[in-house]
Amino acid sequence: LIGEGMDMETDVEKAYGAFVVLVGTIVTAVIVGNVSFVVSNQNSTAFQYQSKIDMISDEMRALHLPSELQTRTLQYYDYLWNRHRTFDPNCTRFTADLSPTLRKEILLHMNRECVLNCDFFRDVSNECIIRLVHSFKFAVFLNSDVVAEEGELAAELVFVIHGSAKVVKRGRVMPVSLLSPGDYFGEKSLLMHHRNAVSVVAIENCDTRVLEKMDFEDLCIDFPELRESILKRSDHMDVTEYDRHKKRRTSLRVASTSDLEELQNLHNLDLSISLEELDSSTKVTTPKGGVFSFE
Fold first, then answer.
1. Which uninterrupted H or E stretch holds 204?
2. Is 163 left (phi over 0), alpha (psi -120 to 50) or beta?
3. Could you read off the pLDDT of 156-194 as tens digits, one per residue?
4. Cβ(53)–Cβ(74) under 8 Å?
5. pLDDT exceeds cutoff 50 at 283
6. Per-residue pLDDT band at 290 (split at 50, 70, 90)
7. What is the distance between the alpha carbons of residues 56 and 4, in angstroms, rounded to a whole number?
8. Whole-number pLDDT of residue 4
9. Residue 240 CA from chain centroid, whole number
10. 77 by DSSP, 3-state: which?
11. In this predicted model, which residue has the larger pLDDT, 128 or 234?
12. What is the distance between the alpha carbons of residues 46 and 160, in angstroms, rounded to a whole number?
């Protein structure tokens, strides 16, 4: 090694050597400490995850659940942990100890996409928006989970935050439409009592925000402009109104066809009247030369 066998003789060399040894010891201690901290954090996080999975597995075995259902349940918690690093996506435990101001700002940040992507939230007050974000509930749907079932009572407004879903109709092979992040459905089910006309099925793991009908009605007591805004601005096809939209399009098509036939009949009538007028007003004379002329 370089410097091996060389003794420090002068006072300057001895002081420099002592300084280098001290610095080297400190740097080594810092590196070892940081590595130990990272390893301990990883072990703590892994221990938290594994403890939760072990507890859930024990409970499912005690309930004698089918293996397929146990697998999907573990997939649900695995998705929650890998995407959100928590088993509490609503952050209720985290926000419960915070001040009202911090809780409000965190909920606004978590639900900002829902507020920005909906047209009918533009006409409501800031107080209504704050109440809305406190009313939203977090829901996760795994691949092939049914988000909304055809024929069931519609009673919630659903926002797609992450993932995608397809809108399907019984008797149809191809999906009616696809839902991607930023899309929503069910707002008209908050205003009236009817059943879903189509089903919504997740085609991958989806994060959603849900506003239930009971919470919506409580909001409308204090903020009636929310109901008016939905009635005024919501014009996209809701899953609860697929049949009505289909009937509306059919009636418009029939009306357009009938109007076209009526216009054609009027045109033919005008043309026949003009020909009759032309025949009545035209005189055909035969001159002496034997050539016909029209007057």
1. none
2. left
3. 999 999 999 999 998 888 898 899 998 999 888 888 887
4. yes
5. no
6. very low
7. 60
8. 61
9. 17
10. helix
11. 128
12. 30
- DSSP E strand boundaries for 134-222: 137-141, 146-148, 156-162, 165-168, 177-179, 184-185, 199-202, 206-212
Q: Kindly indicate the confidence band of residue 96, based on its pLDDT and cuts at 50, 70 and 90.
A: confident
Q: Which two tokens stand for residue 71?
A: 């697998």
Q: Look-up: residue for tokens 């034997």?
A: 290
* Burial tier of 165 (Cβ tally within 10 Å: 0-12, 13-18, 19+): buried
Mind giving me the DSSP string for 85-114? Answer: SSS-TT-HHHHHTS-HHHHHHHHHHHTHHH
What torsion do the CA atoms of 152, 158, 163, 164 make, to the nearest 10 degrees? 50
The residue among 76, 84, 81, 79 whose CA lies nearest residue 60 is 76
Name which of 43-52, 101-110, 148-157, 195-204 the model is least confident about. 43-52
Structure token pair of residue 104:
């409000």
Of the candidates 218, 237, 221, 220, the residue with the CA atom closest to the CA atom of residue 229: 220
Cα distances from 247 to residues 33, 105, 149, 223, 234, in angstroms, run: 70, 44, 21, 33, 18
Mapped onto helix, strand or coil, the DSSP state of residue 57 is helix
pLDDT level of residue 287 (50, 70, 90 thresholds) = very low
